[in-house]
Amino acid sequence: MASFPTYYALLVLVLLLGAPSLGALAGGGYQFNILDKLLQETNLQSVIDKHLATSPRGLTAFSPTDAAFRKPPPGLLNRLTFAQKTQIGLFHLVPKYYSLMDLTKTTLPLQTFSPGKTLKLAFRQNKLFVLSGSMTTPVAYAIQNKYPVANFAINDVLVPPGMRF
Length: 165
Known about the structure:
Blueprint: H1 4-17, H2 22-25, H3 33-41, H4 44-54, E1 59-64, H5 66-69, H6 76-79, H7 82-91, E2 93-94, H8 100-105, E3 110-111, E4 118-124, E5 127-131, E6 136-146, E7 149-154
Parallel strand pairs: 1-7
Antiparallel strand pairs: 1-2, 3-4, 4-5, 5-6, 6-7
Helix pairs in contact: 1-4, 3-7
């Protein structure tokens, strides 16, 4: 984790330049365009920006690829309400920085930005899996793994428990 002065240096950069989008952190967002659109539509990018600017805890994100968003029936994302889209976005964000190594050792559920909703992790056969309650998906790769943001690509969209379409 960054030292106290390093945190404030990062805070000044975020305030001056704005926090990069999760898609931008993925190298231009070329396979995270749908996620970027969801974050902008729901104003969640500003939630991420504010969190990074005000919390020394950092952020961990599980970012579905465009291919992940194309798995559900065509047009489903367009039919979701604003509240459902927001809930899905919040469910992919953890308000604390966890490195990949931290995640492989974590046994407690991770509290997401979605109130009362947690993600669990499992490390099997040298692969990290994210468990949402209704599905299990492997972490494909680390997009960014440096404090204050850990961003991991996943090939499925995590659906919060109890959400119906």
